[in-house]
Design a protein that fits this description.
elongated, mainly beta, two-stranded antiparallel ribbon, 3 helices, 12% helix
Amino acid sequence: MKRVAIWVVVGATLVSSAAIAADMAVKAPPAAPPPSPWDVIVTAALMSDYNFRGISQSNHKPSTAAGFEDRYNFTKDMQAYFGVSGESINFPNNAAAEIDFYGGFRPTFDKLALDVGAWYYYYPGGQCFNTAALCSAFGGGPAVFPFAVPSTVPLTALPNVVKQNVSFVEVYGKATYTVNDQFNFGGSVWYSPSVLNSGAWGVYTAGNVTYTFPSNMLPSGIGASLSGDLGYWDLGTSDAFYGVPAFPAGVPYTSYWSWDVGLSFTWKVLTLDLRYYDSNLSKAQCNVFTSAQNATFAAGNVSAQNPGGLGTNWCGADFVAKLSASIDFNTNLK
């Protein structure tokens, strides 16, 4: 009888153990937490010149930049973002820096990626170069004596003037179509009611194309791409602050084409971009738009639009080398 009882207990134990083992095999391991919808990108750059739409923003001198972008992914095909960046500049009004605030949405439809948003260019610390009356009338703060006129400039010529506040806003829409792993192209439209707070509206339209070299063409870990942009900035007429004798209510800015082409190399978080910029603005037309502080006089620059006869090379051919780093906290720091 004892032997029977022992075997019954042993059998029950084996059955119970098998049931527990079977139950353990069926249960799935704890699910991994879903990925965070938030992402932060931090960037920094050093460049030999800061060129914006074919025009130097740093007087052809080196510039540094840094910024971050905060992203929220509603779904894999819809992203909202907000960013802040800063660049060192060398502006005619002695502004301390350029600080950019921007934000928008990026919906994606298969191979087509869209981007709509707004961008505010903020230039703190500027000074007003004009008469006291015009500086006061246009909110430019206290007047600073206009830029010194070279002795070779006729006394009838007018010096460059510039507002204390040249900050402005643009709204934009972008589209990029990815054909395959090597090729994509796109376009964008930007609108401002007052470019550089000049009173002149501006519509900038651009197209771009990028070719990414196959990964087996370069040593492992190094990527390369060739890209180019072509843009047209349609510009209106300034307010009376920038008026000249032929156009006392405001000077008409020259609309212009700009273009660039460059080769980029990537390695981990680093990118080296070597790029050529140019535009079809003459030195005289460039001076009217930029009020460059290093402008020089030439008799051939004199026109109704530019009676001072000053000209600048800020809008001419420019080769820029840029080394940048971009860290994605959800990718690079895991």
